[in-house]
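Q: Here's a chain of 228 amino acids. Please give me its 3D structure as tokens.
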Amino acid sequence: MAETYGTRLPRATDGPIQGRLIVIEGADGSGRTTEVARLKEWLEIEGHPVVDTGLRRSRLVGAEIDRAKQGHTLSPTTMSILYAADFADQLENKILPSLVAGSAVLADRYIYTLMARAVVRGATREWARKLYSFALVPHLTVFLDARPEILLHRAIARYGSLDYWESGMDLSISRDRFESFFAFQRLLQTEFDWMAKEYGFVRVNADRDPDAVDADVRTAVARLYAPR
């Protein structure tokens, strides 16, 4: 039976977990998506079936979250509840069944990002923990740790501008998007530093090139599959 942080989803798939839940966390621009793709290819070559997942991929509410965010009018509580619904739907219909079937599940972000965003936007840590208490405890959580300056450079190089929500513009920290971005990243980093200790993250320096990051992540993941 899968271990959760508290409650269990009423209709959650029951049965022994055969696969491994591996979470890759980090800020936007830390290289998570690149690392998930690399890790998936490597695990499949090693003979492990792999399913990948991430935020806003639920057929139930994923598209609705995208549309709601475009209006820049979501309240912090509404945003958290929508993301919780998105995650719950994926957990029930994708993550748990895949783990029971024996697949490795690679999560490009998990509840930790959602909790950090909720707290930064005014929620208490206790409220955020209760909201996502139905989440499975991962077998491994890797946090890709990159400096804000690196994140900024990568965001501009990739998108040509800074995202409204990823810059924390809804918090009215500053009218200048760059100042808001750095302030928002500092707030998030405080929460991630706390969660790294609370939930046992493996931290990897993501300021480096993708090959170096991938080597460290593979070392951590390989331990999950080492003969006991």
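Q: Can you summarize the key feature?
A: The radius of gyration is 17 Å.
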